C-alpha cells in the first residue's frame, strides 16, 4: 500500500485531504508543521508528500528542497494559496512533482497523486536495480582469502577512486574482466558505460572499426557512420582485454587517445574528443613483446601507470574450495537443486587438480557437476573423467602406485560406478561381486 503524507497547519484542509485520499485506499499520515513532518518521514517509507507552502515553523518551498535532498525517491505536491502561483513554480524548480491551488483543486488531487506514486515507484525500482548492480560488482564479491588476492583487491580498491589507467596482468581465466568491472562500478564513472572488447577476437581492420568507429564510405560495406566503443565509453570506461594481441599500427592510435584524449575515426578527417578511462589486460609478457618489436614501448609506459598482478588458481590453492562452494550454490539455485555440500573425495580431487584454465575452468567444472549430480552432496562421479582418474591416485592421502593391484581395482570400480550413474546394485552386478563387498570397497577407497 502506498503512503501519502499531508503537511498543513490548517486542520480542516488537512483532515479533508486525508479523508479524500484515504477513501482511495492509500495509507495517509498527517503533520501540522515541519517538525512533525520530519518525524513522520523518519518513521516510515512515504511515497508522496502534499505540503502547504506556508507552515508555522518553515517555508514550504525551502522544505521541499530539503526533503528532496534527504528523500529523493519521494514525490512532493505543493499546496499554494490563491494568487500565489509563484511559490508553486519555485517549488517545481526545487524538485516538487506539481502544485495545486488550496481548496479549489480537490478534484485534481487523486489523479495527481496517482501519477506521483507511479513516478515514485519507478524511481524505487531504478534504485533497487542500481543497488543490485553495485552489489554485483562490489569488491566484496571477489572471493579469496589468500594474501595475493587480498593484495590485488586492495590495489584495485585504491585505484578505482581515480582516473588512472590500469594494466591487469595474469593468466587466462584469472578474472581480469571481473576486476575491471569492479574498478569501473566503484569509480565516479559508474553511471556511464563500461565497454569491453577482446583484442584477440578481431582482425586488424575490424578491430580498428570496432574501437574507433568509421565514417560512411570509409571501406566496402560501410553504409553509414558507426560509433566505436571508445566513443560509446565516453565519460565511462573502456576495457581492452588481451591488449598484447593488438596490431602495432593500432597501438599508435590508442597511444594518441591516452596522450590527447582524441582519436580519428576510420575515413574521417577530423578528430573526436573523448573522456574515457582505459583499463587494459593481457596474459602476455609485454616486455618480451617489446623486445620482439610486437608492442610499442611508449604505449607500454602509458598503460603501465598502475599495474595489478592477478594470481593463478594454482598459486592460491586455499581459495579453490570457497570458490567451488560459491559456484555450487549459484548453479544449484539456477537448476532448482538442493545441494548440502561437497564430498571429501570431490574436494580432494579439486585440490589435486592442476588448474590450467584457472577460475574459468573451475566454474565450468562446477556447472557440469551440478548438472550431473543427483545426490545432496557433489561427488567425484560428477567430475570430468580425466579429473576422476587424477583423484584415484590418492587413497586416504597416500599415493598408490600406477602398477599396484589396488590402484587398478579402484579405477575399475570407479568407472563402473560412473557407467551406472552411481547405482550400486547395478554396479555390483556388472562387477560380479556382492553388494556388501562393493560397499566395503567404496569405503576402503573413499569413492
Write the layout of secondary structure elements.
Layout lengths: L2 E5 L3 H12 L4 E5 L2 H10 L4 E5 L1 E2 L2 E2 H11 L4 E6 L4 H9 L4 E4 L4 H31 L10 H14 L5 E4 L6 H10 L8 E5 L5 H9 E2 L11 E2 L1 H4 L4 E5 L6 H13 L1 E3 L6 E3 L3 E6 L3 H6 L5 H7 L2 E4 L10 H16 L5 E2 L1 H9 L5 H15 L4 E2 L6 H7 L2 E2 L2 E2 L5 H15 L4 H8 L3 H11 L2
Parallel strand pairs: 1-2, 1-3, 3-6, 6-7, 8-15, 8-16, 9-12, 12-15, 17-18
Antiparallel strand pairs: 4-5, 10-11, 13-14, 19-20
Helix pairs in contact: 3-4, 6-7, 10-12, 13-15, 14-16, 17-18, 18-19
CATH topology of the largest domain: Rossmann fold
Rounded mean pLDDT score: 88
Poorly predicted residue ranges = 395-400
CATH architecture of the largest domain: 3-Layer(aba) Sandwich
Largest sheet: 5 strands, parallel
Give a quick rundown of the structure.
The protein has helices at residues 11-22, 34-43, 60-70, 85-93, 106-136, 147-160, 176-185, 204-212, 229-232, 248-260, 286-291, 297-303, 320-335, 344-352, 358-372, 385-391, 405-419, 424-431, 435-445, and strands at 3-7, 27-31, 48-52, 54-55, 58-59, 75-80, 98-101, 166-169, 194-198, 213-214, 226-227, 237-241, 262-264, 271-273, 277-282, 306-309, 341-342, 377-378, 394-395, 398-399. It is α/β, with parallel strands linked by helices and 447 residues long.
Amino acid at each position: 500500500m502506498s503512503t501519502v503524507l499531508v503537511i498543513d497547519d490548517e486542520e480542516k484542509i488537512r483532515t479533508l485531504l486525508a479523508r479524500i485520499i484515504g477513501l482511495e485506499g492509500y495509507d495517509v499520515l498527517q503533520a501540522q508543521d515541519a517538525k512533525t513532518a520530519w518525524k513522520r518521514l523518519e518513521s516510515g517509507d512515504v511515497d508522496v508528500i502534499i505540503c502547504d507552502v506556508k507552515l508555522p515553523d518553515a517555508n514550504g518551498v525551502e522544505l521541499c528542497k530539503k526533503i528532496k535532498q534527504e528523500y529523493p525517491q519521494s514525490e512532493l505536491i505543493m499546496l499554494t494559496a490563491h494568487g500565489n502561483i509563484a511559490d508553486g513554480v519555485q517549488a517545481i524548480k526545487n524538485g516538487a512533482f506539481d502544485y495545486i491551488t488550496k481548496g479549489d483543486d480537490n478534484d485534481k488531487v487523486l489523479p495527481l497523486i496517482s501519477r506521483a506514486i507511479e513516478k515514485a515507484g519507478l524511481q524505487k525500482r531504478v534504485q533497487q536495480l542500481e543497488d543490485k548492480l553495485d552489489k554485483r560488482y562490489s569488491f566484496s564479491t571477489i572471493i579469496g582469502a589468500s594474501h595475493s588476492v587480498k593484495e590485488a583487491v586492495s590495489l584495485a580498491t585504491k585505484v578505482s577512486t581515480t582516473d588512472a589507467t590500469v594494466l591487469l596482468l595474469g593468466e587466462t581465466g584469472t578474472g581480469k574482466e571481473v576486476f575491471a568491472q569492479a574498478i569501473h562500478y566503484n569509480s565516479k564513472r559508474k553511471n556511464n558505460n563500461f565497454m569491453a572488447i577482446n583484442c584477440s577476437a578481431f582482425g586488424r581492420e575490424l578491430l580498428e572499426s570496432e574501437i574507433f568507429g568509421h565514417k560512411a564510405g570509409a571501406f566496402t560495406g560501410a553504409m553509414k557512420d558507426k560509433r566505436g566503443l571508445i566513443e560509446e565509453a565516453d565519460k565511462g570506461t573502456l576495457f581492452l582485454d588481451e591488449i598484447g594481441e593488438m596490431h602495432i599500427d593500432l597501438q599508435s592510435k590508442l597511444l594518441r587517445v591516452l596522450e590527447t584524449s582524441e582519436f580519428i575515426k576510420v575515413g574521417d578527417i577530423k578528430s573526436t574528443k573523448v573522456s574515457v578511462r582505459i583499463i587494459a589486460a593481457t596474459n602476455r609478457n609485454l616486455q618480451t613483446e617489446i623486445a620482439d618489436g610486437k608492442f610499442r614501448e611508449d604505449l607500454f609506459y602509458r598503460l603501465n601507470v598502475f599495474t595489478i598482478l592477478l594470481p593463478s588458481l594454482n598459486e592460491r590453492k586455499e581459495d579453490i574450495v570457497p570458490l567451488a562452494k560459491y559456484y555450487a550454490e549459484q548453479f544449484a539455485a539456477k537448476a532448482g537443486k538442493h545441494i548440502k555440500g561437497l564430498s571429501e573425495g570431490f574436494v580432494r580431487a579439486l585440490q589435486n587438480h592442476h588448474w590450467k584454465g584457472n577460475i574459468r575452468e573451475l566454474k565450468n567444472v562446477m556447472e557440469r557437476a551440478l548438472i550431473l549430480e543427483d545426490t545432496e552432496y557433489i561427488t567425484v562421479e560428477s567430475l570430468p573423467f580425466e579429473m576422476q582418474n587424477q583423484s584415484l591416485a590418492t587413497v586416504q592421502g597416500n599415493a598408490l602406485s600406477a602398477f599396484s593391484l589396488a590402484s587398478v581395482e579402484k579405477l575399475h570400480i570407479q568407472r563402473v560406478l560412473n557407467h551406472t550413474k552411481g547405482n550400486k546394485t547395478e554396479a555390483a552386478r556388472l562387477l560380479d561381486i556382492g553388494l556388501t563387498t562393493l560397499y566395503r570397497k567404496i569405503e576402503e577407497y573413499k569413492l
